User: Which sequence fits this backbone?
């Protein structure tokens, strides 16, 4: 079941999903992301972010942003959660929830979308929108025409 | 004037623009991207890419991918073109064309979309699709719900 | 106790440490790095790397390299181990061991040295040299005149 | 001609070079770096940096840091100068000068050392030290035991 409604993705009209089962599971995932944001190392931005990744097997890996004095060395919370999972042998993901302590309604940066798409497009990205409601989009919606692993095969 | 048609962005239905003036300008921009790809330093991927960036003032900056033995150090053609422009005092952009010698129909990676969006969403990204035709999308279409400069303002 | 000897750092003459206690502890750390390299996701380089990080509290965090179709998105094993530790609340480190399955005697790339230095200079980097012997250097030796957190304070 | 003296690289004792010809050439290069820092796009750090790269052919390419709302997307001045040169067909470098408007005496971050080493170790890195004097080191001194292009050859 799905219906079109006001969304936080600007001019591109996307279809939000109504799905009570996902809603309940994603709410728990977001709670894990909120908790993970407490570990954030962000002395330069003072902008703590947490992420929680749900694997196909039902396991949850959490991450936070880790900044660097040379800003380009910074790694976001989403990428932290994913490489933790991969380094423990998990590569199949269902959803990733993200929480910015200071700002709601923010979708991942392009670098993290790129990093996630290496492991699939059918992964839901979950956030709290500015109304405090849970909202999610598939990575495919967030990175249309993605450049992924298959793109390098000639 | 615009009409809906078959596109290379998968399931997300986008509207392609028909615009003879842009078509002519973007064709030249793509030619510059093709030429720029010859400078590519890509000993690890053997995947030369070129980019050409059109500023609001009508100036063109070109770039190529520059790889690194530590793969994470690699900088794509799109980012090369943009930082060249910024380092010469240009920060307002109209369009960026991209050319992969080995593959047509590829849109920029998420990292480059992120880098471009720092300087605006109303920038057209131009490629050759798999049919050999010119195709373009605004960055806003390629990075819906982007995380940009205004996102850090609380 | 220390003595000057042949080393793998080229023309810069450094002093290697002889320290049986560290030797035993670092050997175990290297074994953990070897095991961690099995989790490596490296379809583009086919160059699996593992890392194992020893915290001040004696806890070990492991990591592997995780590559991306857009090479610049790649995250090395060393950074993976560190952000895992930080995201679990550990920020004080004693040593990090690194293992490349295909090559011995390789010290970390500059990006990882930069990432490690955010958390201290008195961290030993441990590798197997080309003779199959354990060898280590402090980060301070590997990144002389580093650009760290204190560098941004005016 | 060379002599040992007080330097800004901490505990690692390095030998500074006295070389009037280089001194004069590097002073001009530093002036170009100072001028390049005016183009810096650094709304997040407010820390403008400029770089000037001298090619083997005697050509100078300048760069500045270009930051991103997602900090990890930031590209430093040194890398900007190098990819500009590569994208114009230059890959052989003699020296790179760096200038931080707010801080003197800072050597490049590890990411930039990594990026430079792809194109050689015998490249001088030039800065103004805290005494206002010109100081330089070869990249080999700044990245001992580097991980470079040859490191990937098994």
Assistant:
């Amino acid at each position: 079941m799905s219906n079109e409604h006001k969304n936080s993705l600007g001019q591109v009209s996307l279809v939000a999903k109504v799905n009570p089962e996902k809603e309940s599971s994603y709410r728990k995932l977001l709670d894990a992301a909120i908790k993970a944001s407490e570990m954030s190392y962000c002395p330069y931005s003072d902008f703590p972010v947490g992420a929680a990744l749900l694997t196909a097997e039902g396991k949850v890996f959490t991450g936070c942003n880790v900044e660097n004095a040379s800003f380009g060395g910074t790694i976001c919370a989403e990428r932290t959660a994913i490489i933790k999972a991969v380094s423990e042998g998990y590569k199949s993901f269902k959803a990733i929830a993200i929480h910015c302590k200071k700002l709601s309604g923010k979708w991942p940066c392009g670098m993290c979308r790129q990093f996630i798409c290496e492991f699939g497009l059918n992964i839901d990205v979950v956030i709290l929108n500015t109304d405090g409601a849970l909202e999610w989009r598939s990575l495919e919606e967030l990175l249309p025409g993605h450049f992924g692993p298959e793109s390098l095969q000639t």
The beta strands of chain D are 2-4, 15-17, 49-55, 60-64, 93-100, 124-128, 134-138. The CA atoms of residues 34 and 99 of chain D lie 6 Å apart. The interface with chain C takes residues 8-12, 14, 45, 47, 102-103, 106-115, 117, 137, 140-147, 151-152, 154 of chain D (CB under 8 Å). Residues 1-15 of chain D have pLDDT under 50 and may be disordered.
